[in-house]
């Protein structure tokens, strides 16, 4: 890949393939693989990522919202798409684009039944979400009779899967809690089967779940962050390859005298002579103010340059004292080193937040 000449997010499809194959190799061959491509495929590019994964033979996709599913359908994606968090107002559209809803509450279940009754469909695929401890979305264990009763009132739905989500699959201190979630989910599935006479697919694991609780893979697993190169665990990270690299260039270099300041509110004051480089990316590109004032650093010719002063909307400044560099030279924000995870940690956040914040203004470049 050529050197960056502006701010670009490089998306390495070979790395994606590697991560997909690594994750697939850690589950049974009979277990289906759902790729989570919500939030522009974790800040990369939902369409390119989904089309590539479709070619690799992924079984299912998940997005958070209906609009994200429509984007994929309009791009020609044919694989089933689970919408994790549909809203009532979008249910007709969801059906029009052949998206599969997660039904997570009496409110959304009733709304979906009312909507589907106005459409000429049969066996419309739906997924029932149960809350087993995350306390975010989902029916409670004791809602099963209610759900079955509602389902009996319509012949137009087919429950393809029942699923749940773990609250702390990456946290070994919460093992007991997690095992309890898995146990609760099994009980729910057994009761559902006993009362309806059939067994939909079951799924509960995200990326860290695949790694730490493979015994609970059931019929399908749902992986997001792992596909993009992170496993919430140093050992797993060493087996995965970061898909995204954020690069930019040096726009301008300033020599600063002792006592002079840099940036808004003069929050950096040079204690001695300083060489400062201005870079063409800022909080509007997804590098938030929390990285400013020497929390985060970028890499120039393999050397660390701390971010100084407040991050601006379109620019940030770095201290390049002792680094042999000039205007037009390439700068790495994150990628192989530091990784997005390491860069995120510098501001006490996580790879998920950093990656999904990279704004649509940043040009995407694909490497295959
Ligand atoms: C986002 C999400 C996932 C993916 O989690 P990762 O930790 O990125 O693998 C899986 N399931 C649900 C319900 C989600 O919301």
Summarize this, please?
The chain is built from twelve helices and 19 strands. It is of the alpha/beta class and 368 residues long. It binds pyridoxal-5'-phosphate.
Description:
It is a single chain. The protein is an alpha/beta fold. The chain has helices spanning 13-25, 38-43, 46-56, 66-74, 91-96, 106-116, 144-152, 175-196, 207-212, 234-237, 340-346, 351-357; strands at residues 8-12, 32-36, 60-63, 81-83, 100-103, 124-129, 157-163, 201-203, 220-223, 244-249, 252-256, 261-262, 268-269, 274-279, 297-300, 303-308, 316-319, 330-334, 363-367. The protein folds into two domains: 31-228, Alanine racemase (TIM Barrel, Alpha-Beta Barrel); 244-367, Lyase, Ornithine Decarboxylase, Chain A, domain 1 (Beta Barrel), CATH 2.40.37. The chain is built from twelve helices and 19 strands. The strands form four sheets. The chain has an eight-stranded parallel sheet. A five-stranded antiparallel sheet has the order 11-14-17-16-15, with no helix packed on it. It has a four-stranded mixed sheet with strand order 18-10-1-19. Helix 6 packs parallel to helix 7 and helix 11 (340-346) crosses helix 12. The site of pyridoxal-5'-phosphate has 10 residues, from strand 9. Residues 36, 84, 165, 206-207, 222-226 line the site of pyridoxal-5'-phosphate (PLP).
Low-confidence stretches: none
Ligands, deduplicated: pyridoxal-5'-phosphate
Q: Please tell me the overall pLDDT.
A: 97
The main sheet comes to:
8 strands, parallel
Count every beta strand, where a strand is a DSSP E run of 2 or more residues: 19
CATH class of the largest domain: Alpha Beta
What is the CA-atom radius of gyration, in angstroms?
24 Å
The total count of helices amounts to: 12
């Amino acid at each position: 890949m050529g050197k960056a000449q502006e701010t670009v997010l490089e998306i390495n499809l070979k790395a994606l393939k590697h991560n997909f194959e690594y994750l697939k190799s850690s589950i049974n061959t009979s277990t289906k693989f759902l790729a989570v491509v919500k939030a522009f495929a974790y800040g990369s590019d939902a369409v390119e990522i989904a089309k590539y994964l479709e070619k690799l033979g992924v079984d299912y996709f998940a997005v958070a919202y209906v609009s994200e599913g429509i984007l994929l359908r309009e791009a020609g994606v044919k694989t089933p798409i689970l919408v994790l968090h549909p809203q009532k107002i979008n249910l007709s559209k969801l059906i029009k684009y052949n998206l599969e809803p997660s039904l997570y509450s009496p409110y959304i279940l009733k709304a979906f039944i009312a909507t589907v009754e106005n459409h000429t469909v049969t066996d419309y695929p739906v997924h029932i979400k149960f809350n087993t401890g995350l306390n975010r979305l989902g029916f409670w264990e004791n809602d099963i009779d209610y759900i079955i009763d509602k389902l009996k009132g319509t012949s137009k739905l087919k429950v393809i899967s029942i699923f749940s989500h773990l609250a702390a699959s990456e946290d070994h201190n919460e093992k007991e809690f997690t095992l309890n979630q898995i146990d609760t989910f099994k009980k729910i599935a057994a009761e559902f089967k006993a009362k309806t006479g059939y067994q939909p697919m079951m799924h509960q694991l995200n990326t860290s779940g695949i790694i730490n609780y493979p015994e609970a893979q059931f019929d399908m697993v749902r992986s997001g962050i792992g596909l993009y190169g992170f496993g919430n665990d140093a050992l797993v990270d060493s087996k995965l390859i970061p898909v995204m690299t954020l690069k930019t260039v040096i726009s301008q270099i300033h020599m600063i005298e002792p006592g002079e300041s840099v940036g808004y509110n003069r929050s950096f004051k040079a204690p001695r002579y300083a060489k400062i480089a201005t870079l063409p990316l800022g909080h509007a590109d997804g590098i938030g103010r929390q990285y400013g004032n020497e929390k985060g650093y970028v890499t120039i010719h393999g050397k660390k340059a701390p971010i100084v002063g407040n991050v601006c909307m379109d620019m940030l400044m770095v201290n390049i004292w002792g680094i042999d560099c000039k205007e037009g030279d390439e700068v790495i924000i994150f990628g192989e080193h530091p990784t997005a995870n390491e860069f995120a940690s510098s501001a006490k956040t996580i790879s998920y937040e950093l990656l999904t914040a990279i704004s649509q203004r940043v040009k995407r470049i694909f490497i295959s």
